[in-house]
Design brief:
By secondary structure, this protein is an all-alpha fold. The protein has helices spanning about 5-25, 40-50, 60-65, 65-80, 85-95, 100-110, 120-145, 150-165, 185-200, 200-210, 220-245, 255-265, 280-295, 305-320, 335-365, 370-380, 405-420, 420-425, and strands at about 330, 330-335. Strands 1-2 form a two-stranded antiparallel sheet. It is globular.
């Protein structure tokens, strides 16, 4: 029985359990205003979307939930963003207890980081980084929201700061952030929080330690930062080019550039928006789908196949075209195990997304294929962007889905947050030692 509870199963069960508990809490009468009670499926969807830091909403968050409901969502976002094992590490640290070998393995697998036995110290640093960024963001945003009243401004500032840094995308404004398109401070604060949260805690640790000791960044940090900047640049140029005469037509040049920056940041797994994504041109929708599928960086608060996977696939393609045997980046050779893992993650992700799209195409009659693809990729990348409901303008397209469609997205969000490889190992037997060696042969490809 103990062998059955592998780290992969425990991680998946942990997130599923948090979603179930959150779903139950959100269906309580105290969580919704009178006359706007939440069904279990809708409560479960909202809870899973929160704990998986996705942001897809089938409820008008500010109006369909009470302060109690908002607090439940906020806690789920925070726990889901940094990982529930981080909370356990902090509690053990405060109680002056050490993780067992099994707990260490579980925590390392949950964040994709090998700490050489120093996992608890790393997790405490992780929480310190999180609190620092979220506190700074909360103060700035609370000042920006001050006209709404001090208590409300403080809560909105905290909620949006946590939602941004954890790459969740939930907002306490019905139109998300569209009414703040002319507020550079709000847009830049939330945009930078999304970027900082999406970079990954391992990268922030490396930046901190290398600056203190005046050393060079390691390969992972360099690859993450450069790939992030490249994707941001592509997104900004793409949104500006495709939407200059579209959704951005009515705005001055400065606002267009600022909105393009923000709309390039949000597909990196945070579903905030300052313009209506449903009005995008087809080319912008396709670009956004690609950015959502890539997602954030390993060890961060977002989903997707990760920036490093996209970078390694590109490096492999370039090396193959140049007929080079080794994959080299910054004078460092990539390990074959690393490359194989990237292909496994990407291929599994494609299968998960295609399976979701196929089921949704069958269950959601009358919905356009591009809208279904956008919604499903958004769920997998734990992004939260949506082309919007045709019935309720303040909700995601999932609002129009049947219960079957909502359950498909719930599963997709869980897979996207936990990781396709971790979920894939749930259905595979434990590996056995290879005894037989098989002869090598060639297969024609291309």
């Amino acid at each position: 029985m103990v062998k059955w509870f592998t780290p992969s199963k425990i991680i998946f069960i942990g997130f599923l359990s948090l979603g179930l508990v959150g779903g139950i809490l959100l269906t309580l009468p105290i969580a919704s205003p009178e006359g706007k009670e939440c069904s279990f499926v809708d409560g479960l969807f909202t809870a899973v979307s929160s704990v998986c830091v996705t942001g897809l909403n089938i409820k008008d968050t500010p109006n369909d939930f009470t302060t109690f409901g908002h607090i439940v969502m906020l806690l789920l976002i925070q726990i889901g963003g940094i990982g529930y094992m981080s909370i356990a590490a902090l509690l053990f640290f405060l109680l002056r207890k050490r993780f067992s070998v099994r707990q260490t393995t579980l925590t390392e697998e949950s964040i994709g980081y090998s700490s050489s036995g120093e996992i608890q110290r790393f997790m405490v640093k992780l929480i310190k980084i999180t609190v620092t960024f979220e506190l700074i963001g909360a103060v700035i945003l609370s000042i920006c929201f001050a006209a709404m009243g001090i208590p409300g401004a403080i809560f909105k500032g905290i909620f949006h700061s946590v939602s941004a840094f954890c790459n969740a995308g939930f907002s306490l404004f019905s139109d998300n952030l569209c009414s703040f398109i002319d507020s550079p401070v709000v847009i830049l604060t939330i945009g930078l929080l999304i970027i900082f949260g999406g970079l990954g805690f391992v990268v922030w640790r490396d930046i901190r330690e290398n600056i203190l000791h005046k050393k060079r960044l390691d390969l992972n940090a360099k690859l993450v930062i450069i790939t992030t900047l490249i994707l941001l640049g592509i997104g900004i140029i793409g949104v500006l080019a495709f939407e200059w005469s579209g959704t951005l037509a009515a705005f001055p040049v400065k606002t267009k550039i600022l909105a393009s920056f923000f709309q390039s940041v949000t597909p990196r797994t945070a579903g905030f928006q300052v313009v209506n994504v449903g009005n995008y041109q087809s080319a912008t929708l396709l670009l956004t789908i690609i950015l959502m599928f890539i997602g954030a960086s390993p060890g961060g608060t977002g989903g997707g196949i990760k920036t490093t996977s996209a970078a390694i696939i590109w490096l492999c393609l370039v090396a193959f075209m140049k007929k080079k045997r080794d994959i080299v980046c910054f004078n460092r050779k990539m390990g074959h195990v690393n490359i194989e893992k990237v292909y496994a993650v990407t291929f599994t992700a494609i299968l998960v997304v295609l399976a979701g799209i196929m089921i949704l195409a069958c269950s959601e009659k009358g919905q356009s294929l591009i809208a279904i693809i956008f919604e499903d990729v958004s769920a997998f990348g734990t992004v939260g962007l949506s082309m919007g409901s045709k019935i309720n303008p303040y909700c995601s397209l999932a609002y129009d889905f049947t219960n079957i469609g909502k359950i498909v997205l719930i599963i997709t969000m869980l897979i996207g947050r936990v990781g396709p490889l971790i979920v894939g190992t749930l259905f595979l037997p434990l590996p056995e030692r290879e005894i037989i060696k098989y002869p090598k042969d060639e297969v024609l490809v291309g």
